[in-house]
Design brief:
Length: 288
């Protein structure tokens, strides 16, 4: 496995792979890898000849009072994990390699409307502009045949799919299911921030989603009832501070009044200083 830090070196490797007729898969990450990331890498390796994984904590997608400065970074650890998952190239650029003019001075952004105003976008203004911009840069550098994203970041997946469609990007977007700890907590690099009591309290996320799934499977389709049920479960946990609860259309992210055949149920909740997200996509199994 090669660790690449320069754009020109990455481009040379991709050019060689493409000339040899090899397919390329991209797994974009911010590093501090966990089993969720590794599942993306393994699937990419099973489907593509060459797998590139970026490890880059992107300053454009962090707000002024967010955790950019303290976001966990450990390239040596991550490189070993990526190699074990079959990655061929780790692209780990410095910020000034990705933004030579300084990220504060960038003049061109990729900015989606409407779907980025909801859920995480409503409480993290500018976040998805930063995500869409850096992902576009990575797509331009790697020229992947397919890019792999985790379902845990459900809104991000929807945003990237919309961007690829709108801009005629010839890239297949592959969504890989959430990987959970044995007790149900969705794996996240930010889980390392949690104190033991917060870690235990955070289990309320997957528990509330399971209750919502059961309600829907048993015929409850009123979105308000589902949201209120989730809210009651989470508010019963003293350490939980709800950011949002959404019962949404899986394409437009518009709030639903009634759930028909499919819905995204998404949560963002703070435990102390740590903000966690989780979701499920519910589908009516009786709809063929």
């Amino acid at each position: 496995m090669k660790i690449v830090k320069r754009v020109d070196e990455l481009r040379a490797l991709i050019r060689t792979a493409k000339c040899e007729g090899k397919s390329v898969g991209l797994v974009p990450t911010m590093g501090y890898l966990h089993e969720g990331h590794l599942s993306l890498m393994r699937q990419a390796k099973a489907e593509q000849d060459i797998v590139v994984s970026s490890i880059f904590v992107n300053p454009l997608q962090f707000g002024a009072n967010e955790d950019y400065a303290v976001y966990p970074r450990d390239l040596e650890r991550d490189s070993k994990l990526a190699a074990g998952a079959g990655v061929d190239i780790v692209f780990a650029p410095a910020v000034d390699e990705m933004y030579p003019q300084g990220f504060q001075n960038i003049k061109t952004f990729v900015d989606l409307i409407e779907i980025t105003d909801k859920l995480c976008g409503a409480v993290r203004p500018g976040h998805f502009r930063g995500v869409a911009t850096v992902v576009t840069k990575l797509f331009n550098l790697v020229c992947p045949d397919a890019a792999y994203f985790g379902q845990k970041d459900a809104q991000q997946v929807i945003v990237i799919k919309q961007m690829v469609t709108d801009l005629n990007m010839n890239i297949k977007i592959v969504t890989v299911p959430i990987v959970r700890e044995a007790d149900g907590l969705a794996m996240s690099s930010r889980n390392v921030y949690l104190q033991p009591e917060e870690r235990q309290a955070a289990l309320v996320l997957s528990k509330s989603l399971k209750v919502a799934d059961d309600l829907l499977n048993n015929g409850e389709k009123n979105a308000v009832v589902i949201k209120q049920t989730i809210e009651g479960i989470i508010k019963a946990e003293p350490l939980a501070d709800i950011d949002y609860i959404g019962v949404c259309d899986t394409v437009t992210l518009e709030d639903l009044e009634q759930v028909e055949d499919k819905a995204l149920i998404a949560l963002a909740v703070k435990f102390g200083k740590t903000r966690l997200i989780d979701n499920i996509i519910w589908e009516d199994k009786d709809v063929s």
